[in-house]
Specification:
Length: 341
């Protein structure tokens, strides 16, 4: 019989399971605290739970954990982890330090099947989805490693969160639960390449998170070249879904725009971007490209990026340039995993 992945259960599901074993509902609350506040990795450590129940749980369940396979520390304090999962697969997690607190970028799949041409995470396709427990474990392990609390989360590591919808949502619900780490949904950002039907599904959940769209190009024809998801959903359909999302949730959308030299950094591109976003509550993040081995693309130079930003600002589009943290360990997302396959 396959074991129950207990770290992935939301509190209500855990209550149902624990009471099915004959224990009182409040015991589920205690187990949940052990799993998500004290973040223990074994049932033995749950000292206020009866020995007989602990033995039963150990027989029927597993607790998802990750172990550090590699760790790179930048001079600015950014840490990149290569975390190994129980089955030997690896994912990357990045810890960034800001004045307002620690921020973590988590992975949600082993590899990715979206095929964006500038991205190292997709070079070997998708191996499998991560469970909610495995996404949580990246944060829990990192907090233990640095001995500090993480207060912000970006779901922007390896994988497409909306292609692993249920586990990504379970992760958000557990990490933001008052009985867990209680990280405000306002401090969680989910990044997608634009799976349109899933954006509508997400809107209906009315979560307090920030939705972030990896846009990177302003026309369907151009976006198809770097982001194959555009073959399924045009830029127009994507932007329509974003407008509807802001109306349903009242939440501003963040657009990620990686600046690639000679590909999407012209004046015309800035104008098209402003036209697309006109009237929408939005924010544009301009990201200097992280070069990927084997990719034909190079980064726009700093001047071109600043000019692009200025043009957007003049066209009343709120745009900032992302600060480059961890430049000395700057391997693009997915590259460390590729090197250790
Ligand atoms: S950018 Fe995101 S969606 Fe695209 S291939 Fe990389 S991980 Fe997947």
């Amino acid at each position: 019989m396959e074991k129950i992945d207990i770290r992935s259960l939301q509190l209500e599901q855990l209550k149902e399971y624990i009471t099915s074993l004959g224990a009182k509902p409040f015991v589920a609350g205690q187990v949940y605290t052990w799993l998500h506040q004290k973040t223990v990795d074994s049932f033995d450590e749950m000292t206020n739970i009866s020995k007989s129940l602990r033995e039963k749980l150990a027989g029927e369940c597993v607790i998802s954990t990750v172990s550090i396979r590699k760790k790179q520390v930048s001079t600015d304090g950014t840490i990149k982890y290569l975390y190994q999962l129980a089955d030997g697969n690896c994912v990357e997690t990045v810890l960034m330090r800001y004045e307002h607190g620690n921020s973590i970028c988590v992975s949600c799949q082993v590899g990715c099947r979206m095929g964006c041409t500038f991205c190292a995470s997709t070079q070997h396709g998708k191996v499998r989805d991560l469970t909610a427990g495995e996404i949580l474990a990246q944060l829990y392990r990192t907090e233990k490693d640095i001995g500090e609390r993480v207060s912000n989360i970006v779901m922007m590591g390896i994988g497409e969160p909306l292609d692993n919808f249920d586990n990504s949502i379970a992760f958000i619900r557990i990490i933001s639960s008052p009985e867990g780490k209680n990280i405000s949904q306002r401090n969680i950002s989910l990044s997608t390449c634009g799976i349109v039907p899933k954006i509508y599904e997400l809107a209906q959940l009315k979560l307090g998170i920030t939705l972030s769209i990896s846009l990177h190009a302003t026309t369907t024809a151009k976006r198809k070249v770097t982001m194959p998801v555009t073959n399924a959903y045009s830029v127009e359909e994507l932007i329509k879904a974003c407008r509807d999302y802001t109306k349903i949730t009242g939440r501003r959308i963040s657009f990620e725009y990686t600046m690639i030299r000679g590909v999407n950094d012209s004046d015309e591109d800035a104008q098209q971007l402003a036209d697309l976003l006109r009237g929408m509550i939005s924010h544009v993040n301009l990201i200097p490209l992280n070069p990927v081995d084997g990719s034909p693309y190079t980064q726009s130079d700093d001047r071109a990026i600043r000019t692009f930003q200025k043009k957007l600002t003049n066209l009343h589009v709120n745009a900032t340039i992302r600060r480059r943290l961890g430049q000395d360990i700057s391997a693009a997302c997915g590259q460390l995993r590729n090197e250790n396959r």
